[in-house]
Specification:
mainly alpha; homodimer; 2 strands; elongated; 6 helices; DNA-binding; about 140 residues; two-stranded antiparallel sheet
DNA sequence: TATTGTTATACTCTATAACTATA
DNA sequence: TATAGTTATAGAGTATAACAATA
């Protein structure tokens, strides 16, 4: 393999593995948590980026603004997010997590991490080492624009 | 870090990266066909496991039998799957992909692989190397029971 | 006039309950 | 009687179009 040519078989393996693993991770919590995937994603997004306007949340989570309006309403009804006025722009508002929202996000993250840690524990040592060594690079890969 | 204790920070990083990357990969589909996530998953599942009964597909894709009935109807209407009688049990039927279904699945896989290859190309060399090196281990991780 | 957010309405996907046919 | 699959109906989640308020 040369420097400027990717091994497409390895890429295909990676694609399949990430899709299946991501799928199984998403099922952790979907079952007993009463939140939809987008509601969960919005809580996580705010944790990642800080308070955001509804339009920014809609863009980030690939839904349309009217859908995001409903998602925010639902989260607000459950006391998981709060709506504050934008400091300079009267049209906008900023959505933040409440303390309950932060707790909830932390619990979900913990549960998924625990599930993943259990799976990792079932790998042999070289595999586990390779996967964990690649984690920061995978993070940069996932966060590419 | 000792041998029998996982670095939970690294596991958390991995969790986030796999979830985000999987999410972006799922968005890469064959545009003009307009299949739902479950329809796409069913085509992939049959490719993975061979012809399956509707009830088995429902279990595998975490939907209820009546939902799977509709998914199969839709795929059948598009000519992507075929319904054959079960050889010994008159109640059951077996869902297989048509040639068009196989072509479609291959195209989707190709497109997602191409998207991922492009992203990998934007990483620096050590990151790319780490990720590709971990691909087989990630596959084993994703396929754990 | 353009942008942010909401309301009104319709469509898609999935679930539960009830029904048919076969084992 | 139990199981596989379908039909009928209802409930989420999301989209488009139209509207109100602010820049």
């Amino acid at each position: 393999m040369t420097d400027d040519e990717l091994d497409l078989d390895a890429v295909a393996t990676l694609r399949g593995a990430v899709l299946r693993l991501g799928r199984r991770l998403r099922y952790q919590t979907v079952g007993d948590a009463d939140l939809s995937a987008t509601e969960l994603a919005v809580l996580g997004r705010i944790g990642l980026c800080g308070p955001l306007a509804p339009s920014a949340l809609a863009r980030a989570e690939h839904v349309k603004p009217p859908s995001m309006t409903k998602v925010i309403e639902s989260l607000e009804d459950r006391g998981l997010v709060r709506r504050d006025p934008h400091p300079t722009d009267g049209r906008q508002c900023l959505i933040s997590r409440t303390e309950a929202g932060e707790t909830f996000t932390a619990q979900t993250r913990e549960r998924r991490t625990a599930w993943l840690a259990q799976r990792l524990d079932e790998l042999d040592e070289p595999d586990r080492r390779a996967v964990l060594a690649a984690a920061p690079a995978l993070q940069r890969l996932a966060d590419l624009p």
